[in-house]
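REQUEST FORM: STRUCTURE PREDICTION
Request ID: SP-0412
Submitted by: Lab K.M.
Chain count: 1
Length (residues): 481
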Amino acid sequence: MTKRYDLSRLAPFMLLDEPQLTFDSNDRFLDVNPLRGLDQHGPYSKVTFETYTKELRVASIAPESGRAGLRNLVETLRSSHGAKDRAEYVPGFRGFQQVFGIPLIGARTANAHIRLSDDIGLQSAASPGERLMQAIGGAMDRLALQREHFDVVLVYLPDTWQSAFRAPGFDAHDAIKALGAWHGIPTQVINDRAINFPYKASLAWRLGIALYVKAGGLPWKLAPLPGIPEGTAYIGLAYALRGNQTEAHYVTCCSQVFDADGGGMQFVAFQARDPVKDLAEAKRNPYLSRSDMRAVLARSLSLYTSRNGGHLPRRLVVHKTIGFKPEEIDGVLDATAAVPEVECMEVGNAVGWRGVWLLEGKGRAPSVPDGYPVPRGTVLQRTGSSALVWVAGNAPRAALKGDYYQGKKSIPRPLSLIRHVGKGPLQLSALEALALTKMDWNNDALYDPVPVTIRYSQKLARTIANVPNLPGNAYAYRLFM
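STATUS: Completed
RESULT:
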């Protein structure tokens, strides 16, 4: 019998252009490399930022022995450094004021610098985590009285306190973020790895961007995406179980990238009302009831309209890492009946697919593997409603020279996109996912493994699950970065 190899042929692939970032409101200053764009043009909010604060002021919470390390860290951010790692991607750092257009200073009042004892009683405490949070909580209460004197708090946790960092159902980093959110205070947790990190340019870029955003700045936005309708908004959903095994409820958070340019991100922390009926199924494939999905989407849209003059989005895209159950789709459609276009997209990153980029060979070898992986932005459509998109891969346009593969190891796996509701070319959905991987302002990387809609919603879901007393309110995303 003749073998029909043509029946197993894959569909033709397509290559998406690397999404552009904009560094001013008129889209005059564009670049695909966020660090190069900042270096050459400054941040997106450079003009508006200095109208409400002339300096970025940092307060501190640190053990007595850590004060010198924090001072050195701030001085590192103020200074210039040549790039010594990832030289094909990272430009030299010219100093915080030269890059962001505003001085970085320590808060001028001594009351904004809280000194903790090096020994805060962790060794003798029955619960080191609780003892640590008592100390940090007391310091945060004192800082709340000095709120007008600083913009961001540096919280230094030395390695000698490691016994208090984690316990079942507890994570010190998440607890500190929740404590800051309670007070409305942005925090930057510093550990010994940051203090001792040898590549100063990379450290300065990473921390500099984070501090600028936490203080209320916008380093960059997405330039208009070709083919994406004006008035598009994005919502990312993530779930976590909270409570004991017999009375577990979902906590879902909604990470919102309100605009097609990536602006206006806020979280909705939502406690589902309907109980979990099948805990085993919930652990394997979390989902919401129709009424809970309707409620969380309605709250999300309410936040959107409050920031957009009462107008609903023209198009709404909902991202989720697992499939949409029928009752969830019904809940989405109930809440979005007045939105003209709705798309429910499953965004999975645990797929078995891999791809190798082949070059035309010579002689007997028709093709040979390239020394770099498939280009970032490669899209392979599988069916009418599903596609693979490589958000990790070779990105020569973002390189300062030659090729650039972030991480430089392993064969990258693609994201799996499955559309459950909606219509239109899947390459546009792939372009949106690709672009939204560039909107995590909490690092200096070219891209995240998943879109920011997924990344930030997962972050808050985990935080809420670990901090049961965090109210189910709307929060600015920068409080949890």
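NOTES: The domain at 225-480 is CATH 3.30.420.10 (Nucleotidyltransferase; domain 5).
Reviewed by: T.R.
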